[in-house]
Structures are given as C-alpha cells and as structure tokens.
Amino acid sequence: MKNLIVVIILVATLASCGSYQKALKSEDNLEKVAMIDTLMAKGKYGKSLALFEQIIPVYRGTDSAADMAIKYAKALYEDESYINSAYQYERFITSHPTNPNAQLALFMAAKSHYQMSPVYSKDQTDTNIALTKLQEYINVYPSGDYTDEANVMVEELRDKLDKKAYEIAKQYHHFGNFRGGYISAISAFENFILDHPGSDYQDDAQFYLLDSQFQYGINSFAELVPERLAKAKEYYDIFAKRYPNSEYKEDADEIMEKIEEYNSQNTSK
C-alpha cells in the first residue's frame, strides 16, 4: 500500500513538472497564464517567476497589463525578492495610478521596504526608506484598508531606530573616560532625548545622561569638578521629576548623595 502511494505521488509530481515545462516552452500565452495561476494557487511563487518573465512583455500595453503586473509583484514579494517586489509595485503605481489596486500597490511597495529593514545593529538606511514609504501610504490613505497595519510597522521601525540611537549612546558610556567616552555619551544622550521624545528608552537615556555627566565631572581636574557636578545635579532634578518611579531611582539617588557629599566636603574647606 505504501509503495502504491509513493508511486502515485511520483507520477503526480512528474506530471506536474511536465505541465510546467510544457508551459515554459509553449507559444500559447493563455497556457502560460493558466500555469501561473495554478502555481500561485499552490504557493509556488518562485516557480512562477520564469513564466512571468516570458509573459509580462507580451501583455504590456494591453487591457490585461495591470492584472499581470500586480500578480507579478505579488509573486516576487511572496518569493521574498523584496527589492524586486518593491520596484514592481512602485512601477505599477506609476503605470496604473487610477487602477483599483493602486492602494494595495502603494502599501505593498512600502511593506517590501519594511521587509528589507535589518536588525537594529546594522545600517538603517533601509529602515528609513521603509518609514518614508509607509508614511506616504498613511498620508495618501489615512483611512485606507491597510492603514492600521502600516501604523504598526511604523511603530516597530521607529522603535528599531530608537534602540539603534540608544545603544550607540550607551556604547560611549561604556567607554568611560577612554577616548572621551563620557563626553560623547553626554552629547549622544542629550540628542537622543530631544530626537526620540516618545521612545521607551527615555527613562534609561535620562539616567545614563546623569551618570555620564557625574562620572565626567568627578573625574575632572579639581577646578572643573564643581561646575560639572552642578550640571549633573541639573540632570538629576530633571530625572527625579520626570521619572519618580524609575527602576534607576536608587542609583540616581546614590549619585545625588555623592554630589552632595562632594559639595559638603569642599564647601567647608
């Protein structure tokens, strides 16, 4: 029985391959289109691409051009050829701006760029492009079919950029006094706080800004310490006001105690 099943599967596979090869070699465009539809229905998008490459030029300029173009872009996307799907969806928008699928194409072009966004530790050029494309869709279709999904992706990408910027600043802090680490950290955390106002890392950034300024100040030449610790106290006051229940509260209070201890010891002299 098992052998019979294997034989049946093998015969079906060979028949399928035979039909595919026949369609590839055929001069009958309808046969190619039918095979494309069959392959896409089975999720075999990659296999359909060779047929699309044959058929797209034939249908260009015809009434069927738009339908073929949007299917081609979908096949590329599902095959994870995102740079090519982005191009084809964008080309669709340019060629068929009033087509009912124009909204879908604009969204899927943006989503293709979203798929190319790398992990936060790598260059974020693709992430910024994706954000621009998604925002374009949201602006054009504020109540569109895919606006909710686009907003979720925008939030995710912004979080990625937040994490990238925060981790760069944190790396400077990690360097300490080596190569001016604290000075760079202070600048980086200040910029982060200004440039990423809604970030989940605001709490963390504000604390490490305080700690960086304190470490920078306390390790300075004696005549520079008071002024730099005064700046650290300013950062502490901001932190304590904004984040009274922060997980860093005890650490921040400890830094403030050290500042007060320094001021007490040096004021009495």
From TrEMBL:
Residues 40-174, 182-261 form the Outer membrane lipoprotein BamD-like domain. Keywords: Cell outer membrane, Membrane, Signal. This is Beta-barrel assembly machine subunit BamD. It comes from Nonlabens dokdonensis. NCBIfam families: OM_YfiO (TIGR03302). InterPro entries: BamD (IPR017689), BamD-like (IPR039565), TPR-like_helical_dom_sf (IPR011990). The keyword Signal applies.
